[in-house]
Amino acid sequence: MRQPKSIFSNLDWTLVGMYMFFILVGWLNIYAAAYNEEHKSIIDFSQEYGKQFMWILISIVLILLVLILDAKFFATFSYFIYIFAIGFLLLTLAIGSEVNGSRSWIYFSDTVRFQPLELAKFATNLVLARFLGDISVRLQDIRTRLKAIAIIALPAMLVLMQNETGSMLVFASFIFVLYREGLSGNILIFGFALIVLFIFTLLIDKFIVVAFITLAAVILIFLIRRSRKNIIQFLVIYGLIVGFIFSVNGIYEHVLEPHQKKRIDVFLGKVTDLKGKGYNVNQSKIAIGSGGALGKGFLNGTQTKYKFVPEQNTDFIFCTIGEEWGFVGSGVVVIMFVLFLMRILFVAERQRSSFSRIYGYGLASLLFFHVMINIGMTIGLAPVVGIPLPFVSYGGSSLLSFTVLLFVFIKQDANRMQVL
Amino acid sequence: MSANKSFTSRRYVINTIFLVIALVFIIRLFFLQIIDKTNKSSADNNVFRYLTEFPARGLVYDCNGKPLLYNEATYDLMVIPHQMGKTFDTLGFCKLINTDILTFRKKIKLATVYSNFLPTIYDEKIPKEQYGMLQERLSEYPGFYIQARTIRNYPQPYCAQILGYIGETTPEMLETDEYYKPGDYIGISGLEKSYEKELRGKKGIRIIMVDVHNRDMGSYMNGKFDVEAKPGQDLHTYLDADLQEYAEKLLQNKRGSVVALDPRTGGIIAIASSPSYDPNLLVGRERTKNYFDLLSDKNLPLFNRALSGRYPPGSTFKPIVGLIGLQEGVLNTTITYPCYGGFPLGNGKMIKCHSHGSPLALLGAIQTSCNAYFCKVLKTTIENKQYPSTEAGFNAWRNFVLSFGLGNPLGVDLPNESGGNIPTSKYYDRYFGRGHWRALSVISIAIGQGEILLTPLQMANVAAIIANRGYFYTPHIVKAIGTISNLNKKYLTKRYTKVNPEYFNYIVKGMLGVVEGGTAHNVRMDSIKVCGKTGTVQNAGKNHSVFIAFAPMDNPQIAIAAVVENSGYGATWAAPVASLMIEKYLTHKVKRLDLEKDIMDSKLIIKSE
Question: Is B565 helix (H, G, I), strand (E, B) or coil?
Fold first, then answer.
């Protein structure tokens, strides 16, 4: 094994450059959103933009740490980190403080707090990569599948118990990893179909949906009537679908919390309560829409600066971008994100080790899910789910965890030549 | 590895999903930010508050630069209902402004009906004591704020009907003029109405930004888009405040009016209508009650008799009849007509006349106001052989009359001017049947009775025409607007009558005789040569006393008409009023104190309670 001359050699500077771009966009827009006449300095530590600057500095320290560590460190210690993360989640359930109805934060002091679920995302990705990356493991094996799902489901359930439904859904993004590693493509279609069915069942009377499904089934069965085996398989699927439809109402009524039902209702357009539950999305759309083509200019956003949009520096940071930088600015951010994701996939595919590749896919999936849901909710295409925009939203936990997630991958990539 | 290879192509599926979602976002952003314009206005509605800056309304000055009214600062409590929010402390607010919850709810509901998002006046003209206290505590009550504006204040209780008053805009006004918003004030009558556009100035807009809690976050772009209020322009008038006050005092406790013109300019020096009211009554919190009190007063104090009152001119019409006769060549100064106590109508009836010397020529006829003489003149004018018919003769005569500014509104710069009435031949056709009437049928118009109606303003204008020997300027009050005299051209153009100026001197001499030794000798002055003509107008009640005059004879500076309703002879009431006005105007000091006291103290109406 050759030792690299410097920890910076062989880094994928495209990814690093894009990372810096997002960090900068985030910091500037937090400054704009939280701008306070009395604290004009962007590094004023009493303000959120100053704090974000501090988190950026800490991120740099973490990046250096990750790059200094041996590339194999994370693969080797992945289970240890996973167990540690699970323990942390359990601890949070026990001693965490309740914030806005969820118990996902651990307070070290009044101002320093940490959200362990961010660590759990990283740990789950590590373990999933480690597990699936083993040469002896084959996803075609039903037991392997169950194990993989268990790895994902365990932290997901704990996060759900913390009442962080949005973050729980993030774990669903690993479906892309499983798909890439050989799970049937039907899983994506099936997942998509379930979402569509769920929405339709809530929007339209379930008996009408069932009637349509039945009609489609009868026609299909008629078409494939020669293959008895297929018909039996098909009937099973049909039964599952009808069962799902009838359970949707049950899920909706009994499983979901009232605020979650409201969010879904608002998203589906069933309620247009612009002052109540629909307020966030409406104000967010107004903010982004009022930016127009070129935006109102840096620090000139009125919707965000005067707090018409709630959470405008954390979950709704994209509003500030849309309002102050307009279609051009928000379009650039969206394009940069998709290029970033595609670059990660590209880099992942050039890895020799399965661990690195799977880890890369996991990273891309997590980022994709966050970006899709976060931007989607600010422009009214997704229900309001409180998850941050990676690298851009204010907040130490998410910035640090995404930074580590990314740079562990960059480190793997930098070392790809050393892998036999 | 081999298993892997087979799935490598799946990266394209995942890449495609990423791209599709990004594309969906871009399209969505395009619609939100480029296509849909409503978000922009919604954002503006959120953050911008457009505060109206009301300019100070222009003032009105008399000819000596004395202000006839002032502006006074006042404060209105405004409300924007949608900003009140769900947590509004209704009880605390009601306590603060001293009202009960029911009234509060009703007012808010009314405001909401107008607009949930625009400011409405909740309470107006808050007393000064309350203002300070409110200003301090109002920040606790979102949606409410105080707006300053100015209201009128009158130093003296005169000129009410000329100045007019301002009042809140009605829904109809709002529809016809976009400038006004509910709660805005607008001139309702008088100069306030006719010069509304000049007086009001232009409202300004101050744009401030507020945050989600409706707190003032300062002006938008340092006031770059603010519109500064443009103050209203001042009106400089021909009015002589002292003379106006004097006129109103002379008319007090009488129904009537006085109009004094400067014949050289057409400027209105004084224009009084009695009974009048204190203009301060129509300002302030009590104005609605006061307004209805004035409206229900049977002596009609809100009615400007000088402009809108229509009276038969009586004998003051005779100079015109004479002038037309001279112009038409049916009369000259030497022709005499006898008077046997009246003018026989041929059916046993007659237009009666009082006793005087007979026969008389034009001069004497004017001096003594002989009815028979002018009936004869009218008859010969209308039945002039040069016209094919009585009808044609009458129409020709009528055209002469119209050229004296009669029969139509003169075009004074005050609202609600009446045009009086000069009957048409068609009217008589309808009345008598076509071809069935002759000069004798309509003869009463010769002595200013019958269907002939003039406003006091028109009467004064007739005096001005005679003073000018044949022309007049359209009467007007405003001399200059703001700093420059940018008057309407129509007030600067001489309007000639159809009667040759040379004939006027005969009439002037006759009118001098009226005062020097005729029907109005009781108001003769040594110092001033006044030309006048009395009129005693028969009507349903007691006679109206009418007098027109101008002075001095050779260089007329004032032309005047006075009408005192239901009082008696022209010489008894109207002539002294006009004469005292002339004396006051030309000498600035009235020497005939007994006469003055007599007139001022006379009560012909009992002030209605």
Answer: coil
From residue B459, give the alpha-carbon distance in Å to each of B30, B318, B555, B556: 74, 12, 20, 16
Give the β-pairing of B235-237 and B60-61: parallel
Q: Is B42 on the interface with A (CB under 8 A)?
A: yes
Domain that holds residue B575: 241-292+304-601
Q: Does B40 reside within a domain? A: no
Q: Does residue B66 sit in the same domain as residue B167?
A: yes
Show the 3-state SS of B172-187. HHHHHCCCCCCCCEEE
- Out of A284-298, B322-336, B502-516, B527-541, least confident range: A284-298
Contact residues on chain A for B47, CB-CB shorter than 8 A? 302-303, 306, 308
Say yes or no: A330 contacts chain B, CB-CB below 8 A: yes
Contacting residues of B for A308, CB less than 8 Å apart: 43, 46-47, 211-212
pLDDT in tens, A274-297: 555 567 777 888 888 888 888 887
Chain B residues in contact with A376 by the CB 8 A cut-off are 25
CATH number reported for the structural domain that contains residue B392 in this entry: 3.40.710.10
DSSP A71-139: TTHHHHTHHHHHHHHHHHHHHHHHHPEEETTEEEEEESSSS-EE-HHHHHHHHHHHHHHHHHHSTT--T
Residues written for chain A: 420
B45 touches chain A (CB under 8 A): no
- pLDDT tier, B516 (very low <50, low <70, confident <90, very high otherwise): very high
Whether B308 contacts B455, CB under 8 Å: yes
pLDDT in tens, B247-258: 999 999 999 999
Q: Has residue B549 been placed in a domain?
A: yes
Inter-chain Cβ pairs, chain A and chain B, closer than 8 A: 126
Q: Look up residue A184 and give its two tokens.
A: 């049937």
Contact state of B22 with A290 under an 8 Å Cβ cutoff: no
Residues B159, B267, single domain; the answer is: no
The maximal CA–CA distance of chain A, rounded, in angstroms, is 78
Q: How far apart are the first and last CA of chain B?
A: 113
Q: Which residues of B touch A345 (CB under 8 A)?
A: 11, 14-15, 18
Same domain, B170 and B245: no
Region at A307 (left for phi over 0; alpha for psi -120 to 50; beta for the rest): left
In a domain, B297, yes or no: no
Q: Which 361-400 residues of chain A touch chain B by CB within 8 A?
A: 361, 364, 368, 372, 375-376, 379-381
> What local confidence, expressed as pLDDT, does residue A198 receive?
72
Tell whether B385 and B359 lie within a shared domain. yes
Instruction: State the pLDDT confidence band at B608, using cuts at 50, 70 and 90.
Output: very low
pLDDT tens digit string along A130-154?
Answer: 999 887 777 778 888 889 989 999 9
**CA-based nearest residue in chain A for residue B13:** A180
A338 touches B at CB < 8 Å: yes
Residues B183 and B74 placed together within one structural domain of the fold: yes
CB pair distance less than 8 Å for B32 and A288: yes
ipTM: 0.87
- Name which of B5, B9, B32, B87 to mutate to probe chain A: the one with the most chain A Cβ atoms within 10 A of its Cβ: B32
Q: Tell whether B224 and B250 lie within a shared domain.
A: no
Q: A327 and B30 in contact by Cβ < 8 A?
A: yes
Residue B90 lies in a domain: yes
* DSSP state letter for B264: T
Q: Give the pLDDT confidence of A87-132 residue by residue, as tens digits.
A: 999 998 888 777 777 788 888 877 778 888 899 999 999 999 999 9
Q: Is A274 on the interface with B (CB under 8 A)?
A: no
State the CATH number of the domain containing residue B123.
3.90.1310.10
DSSP symbols for B73-125? EEEEEEE-GGGS-TT--HHHHHHHHT--HHHHHHHHHHHHHH-SSS-EEEE-S
Last residue of a domain, one of B219, B237, B255: B237
